[in-house]
Structure formats: structure tokens, C-alpha cells
Design brief:
Length: 279
């Protein structure tokens, strides 16, 4: 891997033989898949009436759609130029912001979906009686994610191009203090969100399997069965989203965490050596 600053000071000699087909397929499936999801949400809006869960799905699709739309055309351009086209430094910072914002906001939206289902299943009466501020939650998630993704733009950490130099992200391999702090904060935040998502999903599944027969909303067996079917449908959809998102997202977080583990291991070994010399 090579830092952005060093790559801009000398001519790159690497040659790449990657096919253009995978990024085209990824971009097309991602962009048109999210567009189709948004179309279905608006087409069937009279059925779901924009409940909190469906608002979160809409926000997730919009976030993913915009991230893919702004990234893949430029990345495909580099593939089409046989890797002779190089990203300007400004675009690399923008691409890093784009990835950081998309990853973090998508993770937080999925987590919010899980928490919403948890309260809907665990406390159904309070959930139905209280007003849901879903729009405010989504806006807060986007603002917070944008603030965290802006750290490299403000000089808090650097960015780096990754193989085959078609995408940029935070420089988690750097040993500079600011880069380590930025990487540690981002990875810790992502892992924390992932843990909350897993715990709430497990709690939701457990609650659905043990619906309280004394629930005031469930007046009879028919109502209880209908609600269980409805909740099972929503949770199945949510679990599908969580699983697919985790498959794409966890490898990056694990990779970042691995660099952090190696960094702290080096510090620990140095401290052991120093204490050994003192003793």
C-alpha cells in the first residue's frame, strides 16, 4: 500500500491487469438494485404507510445508492483507461469521505432498524402510543456520519489509495499518531454499532418466539397469530439486510482492527522490553 502524498510525488510504476467486468457488475447491481428498492417503497407506500421500519429502509437505500452512484463511474473510468487515469488528490479525499460516510451511516441505520423492531416487539403498547421521530433519527445519523467522515478533510488523519488504486479510504496502515487515533475511533465505533445490532436482533427473535399471551394488544389467539406473522415477515426482511450488509462490511472492519491489534502489540512488546531493562 502507498500513501497519497508519496504517490503524488513520483510516477507510479505498477501495472494492473484487473478486468473491468466486476466493477461494472457491482456498480450496476448496486445502483439499479437500490433504485428498484426505492421504486417499490414509493409504489407500495399506501400499503406500508411509511412506518418507521420502511422509512429506515428508504434511508438505507438512498445512502447506498448515492455512495455507489458517485464512486463507481470514476472507478470504472480508471479501469477503462487501462489504469492510466489517476485520481486527483481532491477526489481521493472526497472518495474517502464518501466511503466513510456510506459505511458508517448505513451501519447506524441498520442498527436503528434493529432497535426499532426491538421496542416494537418488546414493548408494543408503548411503541404504538408514542410518536416516532424517525426522520429526526435519520437526519442525526447522517449529520453524525458526515462529521466523522470529515476528519481527514480537517487534517485529522490522512487518506490512501488502495489496490488497484481505484478507491480511497482512511490510512489505517499508517503509524502516525493522528492516523492511529482516527482509525481506532472509526473501528471502535463500527464494532460498537455491530454489537448493538447483533444483541437487539437476538432479543427480537427471542421475543417473537415467546410472545406474551397476556399482552394487552393481543386480545385473542387470532390477533396473536396475525401479529406474529407480521413481525416474522419484518424481522426476516431485516435479518436479510443485516446479513448481507455484514458480509460486505465486516471484512473491512476486521482488517482495520487487525492493524490496530498489531500496533498495540508492538507497544506492549516495547513496554515489556523497557521494563525488562529496568529490572
Amino acid at each position: 500500500m502507498e500513501t497519497l502524498n508519496s504517490s503524488s510525488t513520483r510516477k507510479l510504476n505498477e501495472t494492473f491487469s484487473e478486468s473491468i467486468i466486476p466493477p461494472i457488475l457491482q456498480g450496476c447491481f448496486g445502483i439499479f438494485g437500490n433504485f428498484f428498492a426505492l421504486f417499490l417503497l414509493f409504489y407500495h407506500s399506501k400499503i406500508h404507510r411509511w412506518g418507521p421500519f420502511y422509512r429506515y429502509i428508504c434511508a438505507l437505500a438512498i445512502t447506498d445508492f448515492n455512495g455507489l452512484l458517485f464512486h463507481y463511474p470514476v472507478a470504472i473510468t480508471r479501469y477503462a483507461s487501462n489504469f492510466s487515469f489517476e485520481f486527483p488528490e481532491e477526489y481521493c479525499y472526497f472518495d474517502t469521505f464518501l466511503f466513510s460516510f456510506s459505511f458508517l451511516s448505513s451501519a447506524m441505520i441498520v442498527c436503528a432498524m434493529s432497535c426499532d423492531r426491538f421496542f416494537a416487539v418488546k414493548y408494543p403498547l408503548n411503541y404504538r402510543c408514542h410518536t416516532h421521530k424517525t426522520k429526526q433519527v435519520i437526519a442525526t445519523i447522517w449529520l453524525f456520519s458526515a462529521a466523522v467522515a470529515s476528519f481527514p478533510l480537517l487534517g485529522f488523519g490522512s487518506v490512501q489509495m488502495y489496490y488497484p488504486k481505484t478507491w480511497c479510504f482512511i490510512n489505517f496502515a499508517s503509524k502516525r499518531r493522528l492516523d492511529r487515533i482516527n482509525t481506532y475511533f472509526y473501528a471502535s465505533l463500527c464494532l460498537f454499532i455491530l454489537c448493538i445490532t447483533i444483541v437487539t436482533n437476538v432479543a427480537v427473535i427471542y421475543s417473537i418466539c415467546n410472545l406474551d399471551k397476556n399482552d394487552p394488544i393481543l386480545s385473542n389467539e387470532v390477533d396473536r397469530r396475525k401479529r406474529k406473522i407480521d413481525e416474522t415477515y419484518i424481522v426476516t426482511l431485516m435479518m436479510t439486510i443485516v446479513i448481507l450488509f455484514s458480509i460486505c462490511w465486516i471484512p473491512l472492519v476486521v482488517g482495520i482492527s487487525n492493524f490496530l491489534f498489531q500496533f498495540f502489540l508492538e507497544i506492549y512488546n516495547k513496554l515489556i522490553n523497557i521494563s525488562g531493562k529496568i529490572m
